[in-house]
Amino acid sequence: MTKQISFNLFEMNTVGHISHGLWVHPSNTRHQFNDLDFWIAEAKLLEEGLFDSVFLADVIGTYDGYRAGPETALREAVQIPSNDPLLVIPAMASVTSKLGFAATFSTTYEPPFAFARRASTLDHLTKGRFGWNIVTSYLPNAARNFSLDDEVAHDDRYAIAEEYLDVLYKLWEGSWDDDAVVRDRDNHVYTDPSKVRYINHVGEHYKVAGPHLSEPSLQRTPVLFQAGSSARGKAFAARHAEGVFVGGTTLESYAKNIADIRQLAEENGRGRDHVKTFASAVIVVDKDRESALAKAEEYKRLSRAEGYLAHAGGGGIDLAAYPKDALIADILAAENRAGRDNSPENRRYAPGATVGEALERLTNFDQSAFYVAGSPTEVADAIENWVATTDLDGFNLRQFLTPGSAEDFIEYVIPELQRRGLYRTAYGESTLRERLFGAGQQRLFDEHPGARYRGGAHLN
Ligand code: FMN
Hints:
Elements: E1 6-12, H1 36-48, E2 53-57, H2 71-76, H3 89-94, E3 100-106, H4 112-125, E4 130-135, H5 140-145, H6 154-174, E5 181-184, E6 189-191, E7 201-202, E8 207-208, E9 223-226, H7 231-240, E10 243-245, H8 251-267, E11 276-285, H9 289-302, H10 305-315, H11 328-334, H12 344-347, H13 355-363, E12 371-374, H14 376-390, E13 394-397, H15 404-419, H16 432-437
Parallel strand pairs: 1-2, 1-13, 2-3, 3-4, 4-9, 9-10, 10-11, 11-12, 11-13
Antiparallel strand pairs: 5-6, 7-8
Helix pairs in contact: 4-6, 6-7, 7-8, 14-15
Bound molecules: flavin mononucleotide.
């Protein structure tokens, strides 16, 4: 059977997420992100388009590495101003019944108990449509917002994340039995206390007694997404993630990275197909090739190098401070950042690249690994080819314009994919996990590490 491809809209509760400069376009509504109406309209549009989910990125600090301050990020609206991604979800859920919501939350700075409850609340309010993008955060400024002087070292962040997840699984999977809530009016028993337990977690970083404050939601553990690309990040994904954002520079490298992650999942006792793989899709489409290319030219004209530089400088090096022919590898070594510098942008620098080449790459969206500008047929051909060649399961669609990019995709690409049997023609399942793994799979697979706490096993 032909594989149907997943599509999420890549979003952020902010003006400029990754398409810097485009906010000035007259048809772009991004400046309305403070209004619920903005999110409600988007949710309705995506559900009409039968999208899998809206995928909300997040950062908890600002990009102030470029030119040693936040001025450029502020001027160019590079992920500031930005609001909390979790809080727009209930409004979007209230006008939809199938669309999923995946939101980013960091494991590094806030202890796990409150997030466990917020996530359960969202899974209840969305009726099992909530997913969590697990990040460990890469901005030095974020550390300074949470009582630290500098970033927690990269691998230490993953060690903290491991324990964080362990606490969450205990709360989500182990603290309450499915039949704990009895609502027995005659006997005045709302919850059967014998079916709810403390978790009494004591670890290196956290001490959490429990019990979990929320009763079990449809999915219990939200669908877990992750985008680690370091060795430590991949190992973490192979243990925990159900959706993985795979990196790469070419079709071949994507194919290899996808095969690797499936292999690693298997080595962790999980099924190869218990991990869905996603890539970023940069698509400019219109009724024909000529119009699409004209549109891409317009986006390029409005793109702001300063915005991309501020974005890249937030987590790493200030490219503006170096001559164009300086080698990135030398700069990383000189700044003692090698092995520590983990923003997705910095990972794009090829090892032998010069500052000039890195600048080119950062500011030209047409150098993205999956970039296609063309007619509906050309775009569908590229998508089909990628999925067939790499074993990819889906894409996060980048926005240049809101709502224009999603509208274009829905108008031009989806019908063509549907004709080829590559895109759903109606929603089936209702929870997000079932959307990814099929009807009946509301909960984690039994082989997933979170499942070991079911029924209170392994808690003490
Ligand atoms: N990091 C964040 O702090 N917030 C995000 O919203 C976020 N979204 C990401 C989305 C995608 C598609 C990718 C590829 C990465 C994203 N990241 C985000 C960064 C990753 O969480 C991760 O830190 C990065 O890919 C480097 O991998 P490493 O942590 O294993 O070194």
